[in-house]
From TrEMBL:
EC number(s) reported in the record: 2.1.1.193
Protein name: Ribosomal RNA small subunit methyltransferase E
Protein species of origin: Aerococcus urinaehominis
Membership in a protein family: Belongs to the RNA methyltransferase RsmE family.
GO CC terms of this entry: cytoplasm
Amino acid sequence: MQRYFVDQCLNPQDSFPLSRADSHHISRVLRMQIGDQVQVVDGNHQLYQAEIIDLADLVTVQLGDRLDIETELPVQVAVFSGLAKGDKFEWLVQKLTELGVYEFYPVAMRYSVAKWEPKKADKKVSRLQKIMQAAAEQSKRLVVPVCQPLHTFDQALSQLANYDYVIVAYEESAKQGERSQLAQLLNQVKPGERLALIFGPEGGLAPHEIEVLSQLENCYLVGLGPRIMRTETAPLYALACISYVCELN
């Protein structure tokens, strides 16, 4: 069933118009009719069954019962990723959203080949945010992840004190055969805790960046198994590991 997100906080039996974009999607793309059912997630991340009651101009829906369905990870995960070439981020944020990410930080790192022009950075972030919203609707999330503005490495560093664990995917750890640190860390994580995952760009993390990160009290350098992954693959692997340990194990 199609799911839509609204900013306002709602109650059962409320009726209200959806946004123009969602109204267009319902009436012009899906060609739904009065009486058809959709799902609505409100500003408190509460899920409701809703019925379409009017298709004039903006689509109006009336809420039914609140649905008690949990689809979020029990921990909040933020991904800090060095800028990647081409449209890799568009694919990456879509898949990260499906896997349960809470925030995404694009970070200009020392070895980033890709460069975002300041005038175009906001437009790129807006594009990524739209992709994340669509993916959240498709994957039945209760939260739309946030794509943060472009950060320098130092700006990203200042955010890390807000997390219980800072986990750095470090390819040298993998090359040296380190394979157990990530599993050990994830088995310590408690529901409600916040994790920051750090990934370098195509060129990897610079020695200075590793040195600075390793000095953080809550930072851990980990390998992601015996194989070296691409910059757009490693975050998905890490999210899948978190899901397995925190949701399925």
